[in-house]
Structures are given as structure tokens and as C-alpha cells.
Write a structure and sequence with these properties.
By secondary structure, this protein is mainly beta. The protein is about 5% helix and about 35% strand. It has a single domain (about 10-445), classed as 6 Propeller (Neuraminidase), CATH 2.120.10.
Length: about 450
């Protein structure tokens, strides 16, 4: 898949304008400065559109340290969803539930990263509570992403992306316990410091396994120059490939399904936490955390298609040809080769899990759209995130707009009870959302 390289923001803006023409909706779209906002303006149905032209200059505001305090969920607290939808508590008492995946038979696999285990929740179609709650596997090393392979109704393997490698379990549909020890597929992913989550998907043709690996640092601190010089380093490597402690990081890596033939699939993606394959097109997508320390409204997090061979800017540039002031003049060779992400989110939202809606329970215009979980900000004076957003597509192409879909996890300026992480679509078409603040999972359906 070829990269889409935009030398300037005008082409991007025109494309967004073209895609959004004709959008029929009653609610206004927040644009420009209004689109950045904060949690107090969040509500289901609010639509935002942030473009590269809306970005402030670096340092326009100070960089804030504003971590939230997690409090017990108030007895009356229920997340808010759009009119016509219903949200119910599906599961509670979990230990930091993070990524979730729905098995072909309908079982919900939930990753509990801290305890190093994978849990299975099983319920009948339409049920609002799981009837079965079992530990499938334990003893894993900070697991995060999981994937079934091959695709179809009878996968043979469950792959698990640990922080330091990829393993797989032999799997038969309906298994509630792993039938044996895991087999190591990738023995040594970059790890040990920095971003620790690793997600995993398989391309729709089943020929490649994609694994996301976040950066070691925030913005390439101490990167310096490769000993052989940048020109020599870049000659035989992927566009925008980093070196030193950032080698094979801030990237999506590609492998054969057996873990061999490692290559850089895409680079310059600071922390692609959530990976997903778009149904129909087979295009990989990333839900991405961008860098901190540049002010309240820099740098936008984003959800984007991931083009093979594309470079998304980190650490030298962001959102196109915007040069990071910490790396001024270091990589002029890359300035016009940065792929601009598709959907820019409120900065510091911490976008995590990502899924596409493939069910039939929601209204027809939701089918094919994506949902992303926003874990919530710490580097913003005006708190943002702490919600689930709907990524709008038109004919399979992102419009740049996104909509607040699940809100209500924030109690006050400094207190939150929920931090969304995982999203998955159940076999009966409901949407499940995990949050690791109070260890709950919520089920959203349409009346």
C-alpha cells in the first residue's frame, strides 16, 4: 500500500472539506479553538473536527502536569450515551481490564495487564451479564494485544502480545482454559523502558502479523545522530527509521505469522496503542498517543489508516511538516515526506483501544464506523479524554470528524472514576467498553 504524503496542510484541509460536504446531521460541528475544549463540554452527540490548520504554535500555553485522581465509582454513576441507546454494567471487580477481543464463538477475551492474565467472559446473546467468568491463561509478561488466527469461525491459535515478545496458545473454539504452555513466536521485542503496550493484528490475507511498539521516550530525547551519519543510516532503512534506544520503536512492525522476516511496516508513530483492521478494505488502523510537553493543544492524538512504508513524523515532525522545536534543523530530508494522520483528536486524550462496528444492533449509519477509547489526559490544564468516541467514515473513508459517544467518567476537575481502554463488538451487535480505573465493563445497545 503506497504512502500518502502531504507537503502542506492545504491539500489536507480541502480533502476534509470535500469529505464532510453533504453530511446530514442536526448537531453543530465544533471546529477551530472550540474543537479542543475540555471534559465539561463533553456529551454524547458532540462532534469535533480538528485540522492541521487549527494547531497553535509550540509553547502557546505552558505544559501542565495535571494527573487525575481515581476515586471509587459513585453508586449513582452511569456513563452517558446518545439518545436511543442503553448502557448497562456488564462486569465488575476486574483487575485493570484493558484490551478486549470477541472470539468467533462470541466469548469475550479480556486482558488484565497488571496481573499478567487473560480472562474469558461468556454470555448468551442479548444477556446483560456474563454467565461464565474464567481465567484462560496467566503468568504472562504485561500482555496487552491479542488476536485469533487464522480468521474465520475456527481459529487454531490465540496470539498474545506481551511487552517483550509475542506468544501463542493452541486454541479450539469454546476453550475456557489454555490447553498447554504458550509457544514463543517473537522472542525479543524492544522493551524495558518507555511505552510498554504492544497490540497485534493480522492482515486480512493472513500473510502478515502486525505488532505496534511505542517509543522509549517522549520525543526522541538523547537520540543524537547515528555513528555512521544520518545519510548512511537512512540509505538502506525504512523512511524515518530511528536508531539507538529507539531502534524498531515508535513503529508498527511486520512479521510472517510464524514470527519471521521482521520488517518496519510504518514509522514515526509515537505510540500506536490500538491496532485494528478495517473490514472490507483490509486497511490497518492505529489509535495513537502523540508527544507531551508542547502545551495544552499540542500535539493532537490521532486515529489513522496506516500505510505501508509511510512515516508519520515522530520525533522530528508532527501532523505534517510541523517541525518539533526540540529537533530543529535535524532532518530537513524528511520534511515533505510526512504522512498526515486521518483524524486528529483533542491533544493528550490518550487514545487506546480501537474497533470497527460490524454489528446490526446499532442504526445502519453506524456500520463500518470505528470506536476509540480515550483513557484521559494528564498533560493538559483542561482535562480531556475519559470517553469513547465514534470515528465517522463516509464510504469507508474517514471524514476527519469524531463524535463523543460514551461520556460521564469524570466526577470533578481533579477526580475521575473511569478510564476507558478497550472496545469490542459482541456477536449480538452490542458494544463493550472496559475501563481500568474501577475495573468495570459496560455494555451499550440500541433500544
Amino acid at each position: 500500500m503506497p504512502g500518502l504524503n502531504f507537503a502542506g496542510t492545504s491539500i489536507f484541509a480541502l480533502a476534509i472539506a470535500a469529505l464532510t460536504i453533504g453530511r446530514s446531521s442536526a448537531e453543530p460541528v465544533l471546529k477551530g479553538a472550540d474543537a479542543f475544549g475540555d471534559w465539561q463540554r463533553d456529551k454524547p452527540g458532540t462532534v469535533r473536527l480538528i485540522t492541521p490548520l487549527d494547531l497553535p504554535k509550540p509553547g502557546a500555553t505552558a505544559s501542565s502536569s495535571n494527573a487525575s485522581r481515581i476515586v471509587p465509582r459513585p453508586a449513582s454513576a452511569v456513563p452517558q450515551v446518545p439518545a436511543g441507546f442503553k448502557i448497562e454494567l456488564f462486569a465488575e471487580g476486574l483487575s485493570g481490564p484493558r484490551i478486549m477481543r470477541t472470539a468467533p464463538n462470541g466469548d469475550i477475551f479480556v486482558v488484565e495487564t497488571g496481573p499478567g492474565r487473560i480472562r474469558i467472559l461468556r454470555s448468551a446473546d442479548g444477556a446483560t451479564k456474563p454467565a461464565t467468568n474464567e481465567i484462560y491463561a496467566s503468568g504472562l509478561n504485561k500482555p496487552f494485544g491479542i488476536a485469533f488466527f487464522p480468521s474465520g469461525v475456527n481459529p487454531q491459535w490465540l496470539y498474545v502480545a506481551n511487552t517483550d515478545g509475542v506468544v501463542r496458545f493452541a486454541y479450539r473454539s469454546g476453550d475456557l482454559k489454555a490447553s498447554g504452555k504458550p509457544e514463543t513466536i517473537v522472542a525479543n521485542l524492544p522493551h524495558g523502558y518507555g511505552h510498554s503496550t504492544r497490540d497485534i493484528v493480522f492482515t486480512s490475507d493472513g500473510k502478515r502479523m502486525l505488532v505496534s511498539v511505542g517509543s522509549a521516550g517522549n520525543a526522541g530525547e538523547g537520540l543524537g545522530r547515528p555513528s555512521e551519519g544520518i545519510e548512511a543510516w537512512s540509505r538502506d532503512r525504512a523512511l524515518g527509521a530511528a536508531w539507538g534506544s529507539e531502534t524498531d520503536r515508535a513503529a508498527v512492525l511486520g512479521f510472517d505469522p510464524d514470527g519471521k522476516n521482521q520488517k518496519l511496516f510504518a514509522t514515526g508513530i509515537r505510540n500506536c496503542v490500538g491496532l485494528a483492521i478495517q473490514p472490507g478494505s483490509g486497511t490497518p488502523w492505529c489509535s495513537t498517543n502523540e508527544r507531551d510537553g508542547r502545551g495544552d493543544n499540542l500535539v493532537p492524538d490521532y486515529v489513522t489508516r496506516v500505510r505501508e512504508g509511510a512515516f508519520y513524523g515522530w520525533p522530528w515532525y508532527y501532523i505534517g511538516a510541523n517541525e518539533d522545536p526540540a529537533h530543529a534543523g535535524e532532518r530537513p530530508d524528511l520534511k515533505d515526506k510526512v504522512t498526515i494522520p486521518d483524524v486528529l483528536l483533542q491533544p493528550h486524550s490518550a487514545s487506546l483501544g480501537l474497533t470497527f462496528y460490524t454489528g446490526n444492533n446499532f442504526p445502519p449509519d453506524y456500520r463500518g464506523d470505528a470506536f476509540a477509547a480515550e483513557h484521559g489526559s494528564w498533560n493538559r490544564s483542561k482535562r480531556t479524554g475519559y470517553k469513547v468516541v465514534r470515528i465517522r467514515l463516509k464510504d469507508g473513508v474517514p471524514t476527519g470528524e469524531y463524535e463523543d459517544f460514551v461520556t460521564g467518567f469524570v466526577v470533578a476537575d481533579n477526580e475521575v472514576w473511569g478510564r476507558p481502554v478497550g472496545v469490542t463488538v459482541t456477536r449480538d451487535g452490542a458494544l463493550l467498553v472496559s475501563e481500568d480505573g474501577n475495573g468495570t465493563i459496560w455494555r451499550i445497545s440500541h433500544d
